[in-house]
Amino acid sequence: MTMANCGTLTAETTGLPASCAVRAEKGPLPKGLFASKAPLSAKTKQHLVHDVASITMLAILRPGNTGLDADSRMGEILVLGLRLAEKAHEVPHDIVELIASQRKSGIVFAVVRTAEHDGTTREECSFAVRRADAGRTGHTPTFHVFHTPWLPIGEAHLATNGSTMGELWDSLCSQIILGTDDFADLDARIARTERIRTLEAAVAKLTADHKRAKNPAQRNEIYAKLHKAKNELAALQ
């Protein structure tokens, strides 16, 4: 079977089982398929038309082709290839949001670009996912798009960890968001990592503000905030 591809990237080159790969003739998806199902801002429409060269279904992971147990949380996981146009170089978060919001199943996006490297060019991949905050029961969830650093094709791999489809989804998200295939307590780990990043940025800003402040009362106020942020950061690290 000839596998669907996004540039030179296929399901198999990412390390996914060949049993999950989509046939080449069934891979390409029209961009209009996603534009017709949701209202588009002018900016997102421009990105879809000009920044995304093609969209390809690379793999569909299901209990039947992964050997994993089904669960009510995650029936299947799609792997979509987004081939960027020649002049596009960044992961299009709004396109990931547009497509992922239209399906209940999990979607891993393999974004492929051509980039300059050592005087020549090479194909690179960044994996992306859209995931909801843990939030509170009964409240409308807030979603965020996360992506990995760019890696050359051949070094961009995904592991299939877990015994259920839900655990596999959490593992794939963990690989993309946190760099590890550990699926345990993922939402708590993401929240902790995001809080650390927020505190690190706050400490950097407050440190600079404290150095610039001339008024003693203002310096004391900033120092108190800085001290509190440093203590919280130390407790999380």
Keywords:
7 helices, two-stranded antiparallel sheet, seven-stranded mixed beta sheet, 237 residues
Summarize the biggest pleated sheet.
Answer: 7 strands, mixed
Overall pLDDT, averaged? Answer: 92
Radius of gyration: 21 Å
Low-confidence region ranges: none
What is the tally of helical segments? 7
Sheet/helix structural class: alpha+beta
- As a percent range, the share of helical residues equals 25-40%
Give helix and strand order, one letter per element, not per position: EEEHHEHEHEEEEHHH
Strand fraction: 15-25%
CA(first)-CA(last) distance: 48 Å
DSSP summary, beta strand count: 9
Shape: globular
Q: What count of structural domains?
A: 2
Summarize the topology:
Elements (H helix, E strand, L loop, with lengths): L4 E2 L2 E2 L17 E2 L2 H4 L6 H10 E10 L1 H4 L10 E8 L8 H8 L5 E12 L2 E13 L10 E5 L3 E2 L12 H13 L8 H27 L3 H21 L1
Parallel strand pairs: 5-6
Antiparallel strand pairs: 1-2, 3-4, 4-5, 6-7, 7-8, 7-9
Helix pairs in contact: 6-7
InterPro entries: DUF4391
Protein name: DUF4391 domain-containing protein
Pfam families: DUF4391
Task: Walk me through this protein's architecture.
With 237 residues, the chain is of the alpha+beta class. The protein has two domains: 5-184, no CATH class; 192-236. It is 37% helix and 24% strand. It has seven helices and nine strands; from the N terminus they run βββααβαβαββββααα. The chain has helices at residues 32-35, 42-51, 63-66, 93-100, 165-177, 186-212, 216-236, and strands spanning 5-6, 9-10, 28-29, 52-61, 77-84, 106-117, 120-132, 143-147, 151-152. The strands form two sheets. Strands 3, 4, 5, 6, 7, 8 and 9 form a seven-stranded mixed sheet that branches. Strands 1-2 form a two-stranded antiparallel ribbon. Helix 6 packs antiparallel against helix 7 (216-236). The longest helix is centred in the C-terminal third of the chain and has 27 residues, at 186-212. It is globular and about 70 Å long.
